[in-house]
């Protein structure tokens, strides 16, 4: 009987929206408490690595990023090891502050990594002073070169902005504006297996040309799917687990926190 090689276990968290003040609330939800609840739940099954895909701070302050590091240090201390945390910026973040603050272990301020047998590349899709995203020519070249350099590994690509329409007009208007150029690069590399992002505060799982396309819920508030205007869902804070098999197969599961008492302001028209 053949035993399948064990997969690498990846935890995806996104859109944590932390504030300098630990009591800071986003549309009535305490984002610090929500993230603490997510991590306490998720790390009952310790992952091999964590990926945080942007909008990690709501106010872009050093203190907010300090809270993120402290939370991860504190909660991962219950594991028998400290899973490395790979991160990238979102439109609410301030990248220069991130690069200064998110350097202490378990944070890994690197643009790519090998996790298990997978090549994982983290892209910066942010545009200063813009909510929508765009991959610069330099990032597209880096993506193309990285995929070519690691053609013997299945590849997972991470970014913040949604590279495809999600069926909600207001969100589709603020997604990745040069998605066609992004997919043109991917189409040249058949070992690309999946794309993982945040920004849309909801669960998405679809496929394009054999590539799995995955968005994950926020660790705080969720947006209502298929809504034409800004609208909140009442789903709890969530996260995604991803299992990366050495042969390029992928399994995934989205989970929401049971019993979280925070309740989003459903009458909100934006934030």
Please provide a brief summary of the model:
The protein is built from six helices and 16 strands.
Write the CATH architecture name: 4-Layer Sandwich
- The coarse silhouette is globular
Quickly name the level 1 CATH class: Alpha Beta
Please give the number of β-strands: 16
Rg estimate, integer Å = 17 Å
Which fold name fills CATH's third level, the topology? Answer: Purple Acid Phosphatase, chain A, domain 2
Please state the average pLDDT score. Answer: 93
Biggest beta-sheet profile: 6 strands, mixed
How many domains? The number is 1
Put simply, the count of helices is: 6
Q: Estimate what percentage of residues fall within beta strands.
A: 25-35%
Which strands sit side by side, in order, in the main sheet?
A: 6-5-4-1-15-16
Tell me what you see in this structure:
- The structure is a single chain.
- With 271 residues, the protein is an alpha/beta fold.
- The chain has a single domain, classed as 4-Layer Sandwich (Purple Acid Phosphatase, chain A, domain 2), CATH 3.60.21.10.
- The chain is 22% helix and 25% strand.
- It has helices spanning 31-42, 62-76, 95-101, 137-149, 169-172, 179-186, and strands at residues 8-13, 25-26, 29-30, 49-53, 85-88, 107-108, 112-115, 118-122, 155-158, 192-197, 204-208, 211-215, 222-223, 232-233, 238-244, 250-256.
- A hairpin with a 2-residue loop joins strand 11 (204-208) and strand 12 (211-215).
- The mean pLDDT is 93.
């Amino acid at each position: 009987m053949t035993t399948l090689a064990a997969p690498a276990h990846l935890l995806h968290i996104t859109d944590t929206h932390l504030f300098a003040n630990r009591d800071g609330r986003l549309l009535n939800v305490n984002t610090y408490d929500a993230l603490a609840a997510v991590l306490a739940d998720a790390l009952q099954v310790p992952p091999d690595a964590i990926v945080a895909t942007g909008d990690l701070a709501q106010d872009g302050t050093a203190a907010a990023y300090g809270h993120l590091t402290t939370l991860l240090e504190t909660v991962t201390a219950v594991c028998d090891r400290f899973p490395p945390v790979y991160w990238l910026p979102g439109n609410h973040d301030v990248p220069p502050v991130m690069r200064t603050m998110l350097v202490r272990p378990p944070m890994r301020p690197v643009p790519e990594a090998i996790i298990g047998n997978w090549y994982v590349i983290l892209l910066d899709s942010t545009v200063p002073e813009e909510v929508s995203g765009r991959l610069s020519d330099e990032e597209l070249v880096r993506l193309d070169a990285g995929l070519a350099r690691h053609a013997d590994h299945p590849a997972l690509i991470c970014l913040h902005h949604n590279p495809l329409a999600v069926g909600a007009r207001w969100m589709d208007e603020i997604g990745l504006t040069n998605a066609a150029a992004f997919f043109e690069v991917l189409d040249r590399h058949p070992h690309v297996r999946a794309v993982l992002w945040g920004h849309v505060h909801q669960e998405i799982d679809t496929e394009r040309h054999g590539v799995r396309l995955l968005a994950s819920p926020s660790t705080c508030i969720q947006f209502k799917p298929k809504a034409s205007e800004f609208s909140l869902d009442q789903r709890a804070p969530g996260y995604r687990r991803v299992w990366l098999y050495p042969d390029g197969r992928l399994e995934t599961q989205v989970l929401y926190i049971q019993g979280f008492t925070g309740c989003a302001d459903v009458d909100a028209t934006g934030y």
